[in-house]
Amino acid sequence: MYGALLKFGWKRQIQYRAGMALRLAGDMLRLYVKGCIWLALLRDDFRETAAYTLASLMLLILTDTRISGELADRVRSGMIAVDLIRPVSLKWYFFFDQLGENLLRFLAEGAVLIPAAVWLWKLPFPSVQSICFGSIAAALAVVLCYSIQYTAGLLVFWMKDGTYTRMMTDSLFTLFSGLSIPLWFYPPWLENICRYLPFRLTVYEPVCIWLGRYTDAECIRLIFLELGWLLVTAALQRAVWKRIGAVLEIQGG
């Protein structure tokens, strides 16, 4: 079932080749502009920062999700009633459908962006250990990011609109995940706040593992920390679902 959803999302993304081409062009421009900015600001540490920018962009493609908007649309239309009686988890139904699209974008854009960035800025290659640990951390980051977005998206059952939850989660990820700026540039007080939140585990920490900034022991600790936060979000989702059962109101349909 989940494999079929993954395949369906992949095929749907293939159908919109023009959209993929435009996104690729936009991501190439974003990567180039950011690289130019870092090159101007950080002559000495540019290669590591440029590698961080590239890796964070690729991870952003994998973690992209529209679950908040999807839930809002289905609650308003009443289609959520159909979703709830399907013989498949609502959470994983959306996850694998979205993952199919993201994987195709990752492969298609990565085949262009990664070689271009490595050639243009002479970026360093990660070690085998960094690739192994980083890939595990990135896979968990994809699930953790989606779980956080899904948990926030469930609030639509009360708010009836996913706009605010999406704005809220996007702002939190932008500020605390290290998506736009590596957290090592943050002031110490703000970096300490980030360490107590799960958002850094979705971008900053997996990328730092890829860059070889951590020892093997630290990599293993971060992976277990990701697993811990996945358990926390799962517990929050169960608690929210119990409340949804009492207040669910199907509109339209």
Automatic annotation (TrEMBL):
<dbReference type="Pfam" id="PF06182">
    <property type="entry name" value="ABC2_membrane_6"/>
</dbReference>
<feature type="transmembrane region" description="Helical">
    <location>
        <begin position="171"/>
        <end position="190"/>
    </location>
</feature>
<dbReference type="InterPro" id="IPR010390">
    <property type="entry name" value="ABC-2_transporter-like"/>
</dbReference>
<feature type="transmembrane region" description="Helical">
    <location>
        <begin position="133"/>
        <end position="159"/>
    </location>
</feature>
<feature type="transmembrane region" description="Helical">
    <location>
        <begin position="103"/>
        <end position="121"/>
    </location>
</feature>
<protein>
    <submittedName>
        <fullName>ABC-2 family transporter protein</fullName>
    </submittedName>
</protein>
<keyword id="KW-0472">Membrane</keyword>
<keyword id="KW-1133">Transmembrane helix</keyword>
<keyword id="KW-0812">Transmembrane</keyword>
